[in-house]
Amino acid sequence: MYLSINNLCFSYPSAKTETIQSFTIAIEKGEVISILGRSGSGKSTILRILAGLEYASSGSFHVQDEVIFDSKTFIQPEKRGIGMVFQDYALFPHMTVGKNILFGISHLPKGERRKRLKEALELVEMEDYENRYPYQLSGGQQQRIAIARALAPNPRLLLLDEPFSNLDTELQVKIRKELRDILKRAKITSIFVTHDEDDAHAIADRIVKLNHGKIEQMGRPCDILKEETKMVLS
Ligand SMILES: Nc1ncnc2c1ncn2[C@@H]1O[C@H](COP(=O)(O)OP(=O)(O)OP(=O)(O)O)[C@@H](O)[C@H]1O
Ligand SMILES: [Mg+2]
Questions:
Q1: What spacing in Å lies between the alpha carbon of 14 and ligand 1's midpoint?
Q2: What is the distance in A from the centroid of ligand 2 to the CA of 110?
Q3: Residue among 161, 223, 154 nearest 189 (CA)
Q4: What's the pLDDT tens digit per position in 133-178?
Q5: Ligand 1 atom having least distance to the Cα of 14
Q6: Is 225 helix (H, G, I), strand (E, B) or coil?
Q7: Contacts for 87 with CB less than 8 Å, ≥ 6 apart
Q8: pLDDT at 12
Q9: Domain residue extents for the chain
Q10: Which residue has the higher pLDDT, 38 or 89?
C-alpha cells in the first residue's frame, strides 16, 4: 500500500477523553480520501499529526514504506514531502501569486522553479494571474492558488483542511467539481477534511466518517448513506 496510518492515538493535555482513538487507514497512490465529521470530531487534529505539527501518543505512519513516525522515529515536518492547504488558505498577502507559489521551491535552480510555477498555475487554470496579489482574487481563486502553492514542491501527499469553508454556497458547488478535477489531473494522493457530506460525496474516492475521534464508518461514497437519505428511509 502507498500510505498507511496505523492505530494513531492522540490527546490534547486538557482533554478528558482521547481526542483521536486508534485511527487506521491504508491509502492507494492517487486516491482522494475525505474525513467527514462534525465540528470538534478531531479532523484537523489528524491532519496536524500527519503533517508533523503534533506528536501522536502512539501509532505509526508510513509513506512508500518509509517510516514518517512510529515509536522510534519522527521525521521533521519539512522533510515529509507533505503539502498542506489550510482552512483560511494562508496566502502571504504582501506577495504576488507567483511569489507565493515560488516560496516553497526557492531551493530549486531558477529554470526548474519557473517550470514548476508554470505547471502549478496551469494545473489550477490560473496562468494569467501570476502578478496579482491575493486581495485582487476571489475566494475561489485564492483557494486554487493555495492548492497550486502546496502542489508546486511535488508533495507525496496533499492535506486539505475544510477547503470550502470560506466560500458561499454557489461557489462551493462549482468548486467541488474543480477540486476533484485538479486532484485527479495532478494524480496526487490527498486527504481532505470536511463537515459537509455533499463535499465528501462529490470529491472523494473513499469517505471516512469520524465521530468523537473514532472511525464510525469507511467506504466508497455510494456505500455511505447521507443523513438526509437516512431520514427519508427511517
Ligand atoms: N490546541 C488545543 N488544545 C486543546 N484542545 C484542543 C486543541 N485543538 C483542538 N482541541 C480539541 O480537540 C478536539 C478536536 O479538535 P479539532 O480541531 O481536531 O476538530 P475538527 O473536527 O477539526 O473541528 P472543526 O470542524 O470545528 O474544525 C475538540 O474537542 C477541540 O476542542
Ligand atoms: Mg478543523
A1: 11
A2: 36
A3: 154
A4: 999 998 888 988 999 999 999 999 999 998 877 777 877 888 888 8
A5: 4
A6: coil
A7: 44, 161, 162, 163, 165, 166
A8: 94
A9: 29-42+81-233
A10: 38
Q: How many residues does the chain have?
A: 234
Distances (CA, A) of 52 to 48, 56, 229: 6, 9, 37
- Give me the pLDDT at residue 195, please: 93
CA pair distance 225, 223, nearest whole angstrom: 6
For residue 17 the three cell numbers come to 477523553
Cβ < 6 Å from ligand 1: which residues?
Answer: 12, 14-15, 19, 37, 39-45, 195
Percent of the chain clearing pLDDT 70 (strictly above): 100
Question: Which fold would CATH assign to domain 29-42+81-233?
Answer: Rossmann fold (3.40.50)
Closest CA to 192 of 47, 50, 48, 2: 47
The ligand with the least distance to the CA atom of 86 is 2
What are 122-132's pLDDT values in tens digits? Answer: 988 899 999 99
Cell digits for 181? 478535477
